[in-house]
Design a protein that fits this description.
mainly alpha; 2 strands
Length: 93
């Protein structure tokens, strides 16, 4: 495994900001109480990190921004958000 640590702090901050925006946007789309927004933001953070790690592991360089695999991290974040929504709404009306 290649662990490139160049630009780690700026990539971490950008990743947190982008994932937080994804979680807030998802909450805006699906609605719900404020505590659910915190759950969606946390899910977006976890999915973003896992997607970034998967992109590094699989050498996916699509939309790479510095050390951040933006495409794979975004896919991971949105997948985690959909799974989180499914977990809190098993039978949506």
């Amino acid at each position: 495994m290649n662990f490139d640590v160049s630009g780690t702090a700026s990539s971490l901050i950008l990743g947190i900001l982008v994932a937080t925006a994804y979680g807030a946007a998802f909450h805006f789309i699906v609605g719900g109480p404020a505590r659910r927004m915190l759950f969606y933001i946390f899910a977006a953070w976890i999915g973003f990190a896992l997607g970034h790690i998967a992109g590094n592991t699989l050498n996916i360089a699509l939309f790479k921004l510095g050390a951040l695999n933006l495409f794979s991290a975004s896919v991971g974040s949105w997948a985690a958000l959909i799974i989180a929504w499914w977990l809190v709404n098993p039978n949506p009306d």
